[in-house]
C-alpha cells in the first residue's frame, strides 16, 4: 500500500467523542510517523544521543528565530557559512557517518583552496584566456587543444611577478569558486550564476586531466569525502583523454583505469572506506550523432569496467540544454540493463521542457533522479517515484547557489521527506562554492528541510538511504550496511563519551 | 473518492504494449485534468479567447526565458511591476471579471497614492512621532489617544513649508508603502520587513478612523475593487471607534454601520457590484481576558449585523504572535455557528507554532485558511483541506514582499493548484506595496504558479472559486454566479471584438 497520503481519519474524529487534545495529538503523531525515518526505532543509547542533539538543534533554531540576521537555516550558504562553521549541530554532523554521496561531479568535487594550494603549484601550469574572456588553466602547450585565444602565461611566473602572491592566489581561486558576500547582487538571475558556473568547468577541467594533476586531484577528492565521514561515492565523470608533460595523450579508458587504481589504493589504506564507482556523464546538448558516439563509448567502457562504471547521465544547464525527449532515440541504443541516473527537474519552470524531463526520466526507467526540484509540482510523477522507490538526489546548497531557491526552508526536499519519498542528500559541486564534503548539505537537510522537532531518526534514515539507493550490488550493500552500522555504533558511543559536543 | 493522487496506471503501462508516446501523453493529460480547472470545458468562443491568451502568455514567458533580467514571472514584484504594467497578459487580467477577493485588510487596501493625494489633503491631518520613532497620522488632537511622544505638526503646514511639496508627498507616501527598488538589500530578513509593515498600520490606522476620512477611504476601497473588475469582497476589519473634528467619538458599532451604508450606496450606484461583507479581525497576541472581550464584542456586533459581519479572525505577525492553541479557550466562547477565517501557516518554519496553527484551524472547523503557505509540508492536513473543501486564501505578492518566497514559481500555490486543492487568489494589503486591486496577484497566479500551458480554464476556475468559497448565502451565491457569468460572457465578447488585446 503505497498511498502518499494517509486518510483523514484523525481529523474526522468528532471532537465530542475523543476530545480536542486527542485528535490534535493523533494528527501530529501521524505526520511524524509518515515522514522519512518516522518508523525507525532508536536504541536507548541512540535515544540519549537524540535528546542531546535536539537540545543543540532547538537551541540554534531558537537563536535563529530570535535573531533573523543570524538564522543560518534561512540564509544563503555564503552568508551562513561562518555561522555553520561555529555550530555544534554542524560539528555533530561532520563526525556522523553519512553513508554515501550519490550525486557529485568530479571536476567540481574538490575544495578550491586545495586546487590553488596544490594543483596550481605543480610545475607547468599555464593560464590563458579564451574568446569569451574566461581564464583557462592547463598543463598542455598546444593552444588549439583547449580553445585559448590569448598567449599563455606560466602561473608560477605570474605569481612570482605579482605584488602579493597571496592575493594572486586569492584571485586565482575566484576563477573556480562562486563565493561572494553578496550573492543577491552578484547573481541577480539564474543566467548570471549559471554563466559563471559553467565557465568554471571550462577553466579547470583541462588542468585536471593532466596525468599528475589527475592523480593528486582525485586522491584529494577521496580524502575530503573520507575525512567528512562519507564512506562511498558514485561520481559523475565527464571523461576526457589524459595527457602528460611530454605531450603524450591517453584515451578515456586510461582515465577510468587511473581512477580504478587510485580507488583501490585508497581503499587498501582506509579499510573503512568503501570506495567509489563512476557514472558516465555526457553533455546534454549534444546532437544526435554525438550522442550516439557517447552511447557507443559508454558501452565499450562499460564492457571493460562492468563493476566500476555503473551508469549513464546527461549533464549541463538543464533549462538551456536539450530535453531528454529529443535524445530518446540515441538513449534507446543503450543496453537494456543500463542504469540511468538522470538529471531531471532542476528548474523553477513548470510544464517546460526541463520539468517534463522528469516524465521522460521515469519512462526511461531511471534508477535515480538527479535534483528533482520540480517533482513537487507533478503529483502523478511524485507518486510514481514513491511507488517505484526511485530515489531523488537532493542537492540543497547547489539549488540555492544556482538560484532555484533562496530560503532553504522552501526547498521541496522538505515535502519529499514529509511524504517519505526516497531521498538522498548530495553535494553536487562543493568545490565551486566553498563547501567540502557532505556535512554542509546535511546541515540544511536537518535544520531547514526537516521539521524543527526532527532529529536522529531522520539523520539515520538519510545515512542508510544512501546505501539502500546506491548502485552497489546486493553483496556490496550487505558489506556497506555492516560498515555503516559499525561506524554508526562507534559514533553513538563517541557522542555519549562527550567527544562530539 | 477524494484521493489527492491518481494512481500510477499510466506510468505502469508497459512501453511495449502502448508505446512510449502514448504513455507519455497519458501522464501529461492526467496531470492537466487533475489540476484546478482541468475538467472545465470551454465554449467555442472561450476556446478562441484561450488560444489568443495563450499566444500572449507563451510569448511573455519565452521572452522571460530568453532574458532572465526581464522575466517578470520570476522577479520580485517591486522590480517586476514596470514590466507587468506593460504586459498584454496583465491588461487581459485587469479586464477579466475576477469574482471576489476574500482576504483583504481594510487599513491596507487602498493605494498609497490615493491616500497621499486625497486623505492627506483633508484639513486637519496631523503628524507626530511615537516612542519608536514612527510617524503617526491622525486628525485627533489629544496626543495620549494615539501614542505620540512628539509635538504635532500640521501636514498641510509641513507641506507648505517644504522646499518641494511633491517631494514632501513622496516622502509621506513612503510612510505607508514598502516599495524600494532594492528589496533584497532593504529587507534582508523577515523581521526587517515585518517591522516596517506592522509600523505602517500604526502610522495610518488612526487617520482612517476619522469619520470623513473613513467614508472617503472606504469609498475609494470599493472604487478600486470595482475598477479592477472585482465584484465582491470579504473585508477583514480591525474595528476601532470613529471620531470627528469636534472631538466626538462613536463606538465600533458605528464604524460597522458606516461601512454598511457606504456599501449600500455604492451597490445602488453600481448594480454590477455585489458589495462587501466584513470579517471581524482581532490582534492574535491578545491575552485571554482581552480575547474574551473581543469575542463578546464580536457576538454583540454579529447580533446587530448578522448578514454583514460574517466571521472572525486573528491577525498580526503569525510567527511572533500567540499560536491559536493558546487562544482556544477564548475562541470556544464563540457561538458554534461562527464562521472562522483563520490566518494559519503564514511561515517558512516547519513544525513550529505558526505552521501548527494549520492543525488548530482545522480542528476549530475553519471555513477558510488565510495564507496556508506552510500547508504544503503537512500532507495529512492538505488532504483534509481538500476533502473538506476548505479554501486556502493565497496571497502571492504578500508572501513575496513579506519575505516568505523570492521566486514566485516556488510559491506553494502552484502545488495546491496541481492537486486541485481549493484556492482563491487574494491581495492581502495591496495599498502597502504599490499594487491596486487583484490583477497583480492574478498575474503571478497565471504566470508563475500555474504551469506554462495553463490558460483560461485555470483563470475561470479561480474566478468562480471565489464565489464558491465565499461566505455568501446560497441565495446570494446564485445571484453572484449569475452576475459573474454575465460579466464573463461580456468579457469574452469584448476579447473577440479585439477590445482587450
UniProtKB/TrEMBL annotation, chains A, B:
GO terms for biological process: adenosine catabolic process; inosine biosynthetic process. It is an enzyme of class 3 (hydrolase). Keywords: Hydrolase, Metal-binding, Secreted, Signal. Residues 193-479 form the Adenosine deaminase domain. It catalyses: adenosine + H2O + H(+) = inosine + NH4(+). InterPro entries: A_deaminase_dom, A_deaminase_N, ADGF, Ado/ade_deaminase, Metal_Hydrolase. One of its GO terms (molecular function) is adenosine deaminase activity. Residues 19-93 form the Adenosine/AMP deaminase N-terminal domain. It is found in: Secreted. Its cofactor is Zn(2+). Belongs to the metallo-dependent hydrolases superfamily. Adenosine and AMP deaminases family. ADGF subfamily. NCBIfam families: adm_rel (TIGR01431). This is Adenosine deaminase. The lineage of its organism: Eukaryota, Metazoa, Ecdysozoa, Arthropoda, Hexapoda.
Amino acid at each position: 500500500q503505497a498511498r502518499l497520503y494517509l486518510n483523514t481519519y484523525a481529523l474526522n474524529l468528532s471532537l465530542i467523542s475523543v476530545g480536542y487534545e486527542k485528535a490534535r495529538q493523533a494528527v501530529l503523531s501521524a505526520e511524524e510517523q509518515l515522514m522519512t525515518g518516522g518508523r525507525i526505532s532508536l536504541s536507548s543509547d541512540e535515544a540519549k544521543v537524540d535528546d542531546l542533539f535536539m537540545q543543540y538543534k532547538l537551541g540554534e533554531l531558537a537563536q535563529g528565530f530570535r535573531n533573523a540576521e543570524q538564522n543560518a537555516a534561512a540564509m544563503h550558504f555564503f552568508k551562513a557559512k561562518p555561522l555553520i562553521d561555529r555550530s555544534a549541530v554542524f560539528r555533530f554532523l561532520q563526525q556522523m557517518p553519512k553513508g554515501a554521496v550519490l550525486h557529485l561531479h568530479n571536476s567540481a568535487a574538490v575544495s578550491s583552496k586545495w586546487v590553488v594550494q596544490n594543483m596550481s603549484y605543480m610545475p607547468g601550469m599555464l593560464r590563458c584566456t579564451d574568446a569569451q574572456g574566461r581564464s583557462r588553466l592547463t598543463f598542455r602547450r598546444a593552444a588549439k587543444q583547449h580553445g585559448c585565444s590569448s598567449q599563455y602565461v606560466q602561473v608560477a611566473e605570474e605569481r612570482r611577478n605579482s605584488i602579493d602572491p597571496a592575493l594572486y592566489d586569492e584571485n586565482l581561486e575566484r576563477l573556480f569558486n562562486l563565493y561572494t558576500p553578496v550573492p543577491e547582487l552578484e547573481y541577480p538571475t539564474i543566467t548570471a550564476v549559471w554563466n559563471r558556473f559553467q565557465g568554471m568547468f571550462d577553466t579547470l577541467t583541462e588542468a585536471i586531466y593532466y596525468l599528475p594533476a589527475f592523480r593528486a586531484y582525485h586522491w584529494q577528492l577521496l580524502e575530503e569525502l573520507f575525512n567528512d565521514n562519507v564512506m562511498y561515492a558514485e561520481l559523475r565523470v565527464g571523461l576526457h583523454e589524459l595527457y602528460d608533460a611530454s605531450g603524450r595523450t591517453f584515451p578515456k579508458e586510461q582515465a577510468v583505469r587511473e581512477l580504478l587504481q587510485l580507488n583501490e589504493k585508497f581503499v587498501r589504506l582506509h579499510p573503512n572506506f568503501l570506495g567509489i564507482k563512476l557514472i558516465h556523464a555526457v553533455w546534454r546538448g549534444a546532437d544526435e550523432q554525438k550522442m550516439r558516439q557517447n552511447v557507443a563509448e559508454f558501452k565499450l567502457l562499460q564492457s571493460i569496467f562492468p563493476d566500476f562504471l555503473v551508469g549513464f547521465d546527461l549533464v549541463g544547464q538543464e533549462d538551456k540544454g536539450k530535453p531528454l525527449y529529443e535524445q530518446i532515440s540515441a538513449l534507446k541504443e543503450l543496453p537494456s540493463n543500463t542504469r540511468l541516473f538522470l538529471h531531471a527537474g532542476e528548474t523553477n519552470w513548470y510544464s517546460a521542457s526541463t520539468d517534463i524531463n522528469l516524465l521522460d526520466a521515469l519512462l526511461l526507467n531511471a534508477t535515480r533522479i538527479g535534483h528533482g526540484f520540480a517533482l513537487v509540482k507533478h503529483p502523478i510523477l511524485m507518486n510514481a517515484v514513491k511507488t517505484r522507490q526511485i530515489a531523488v538526489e537532493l542537492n540543497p546548497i547547489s539549488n540555492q547557489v544556482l538560484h532555484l531557491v533562496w530560503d532553504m526552508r522552501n526547498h521541496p526536499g522538505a515535502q519529499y521527506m514529509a511524504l517519505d519519498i526516497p531521498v538522498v542528500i548530495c553535494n553536487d559541486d562543493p568545490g565551486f562554492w566553498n563547501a567540502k564534503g557532505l556535512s554542509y548539505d546535511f546541515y540544511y537537510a536537518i535544520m531547514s528541510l526537516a521539521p524543527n522537532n526532527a532529529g536522529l531518526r531522520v539523520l539515520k534514515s538519510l545515512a542508510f538511504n544512501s546505501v539502500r539507493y546506491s548502485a552497489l550490488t546486493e553483496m556490496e550493500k550487505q558489506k556497506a550496511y555492516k560498515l555503516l552500522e559499525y561506524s554508526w555504533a562507534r559514533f553513538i558511543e563517541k557522542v555519549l563519551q562527550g567527544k562530539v559536543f
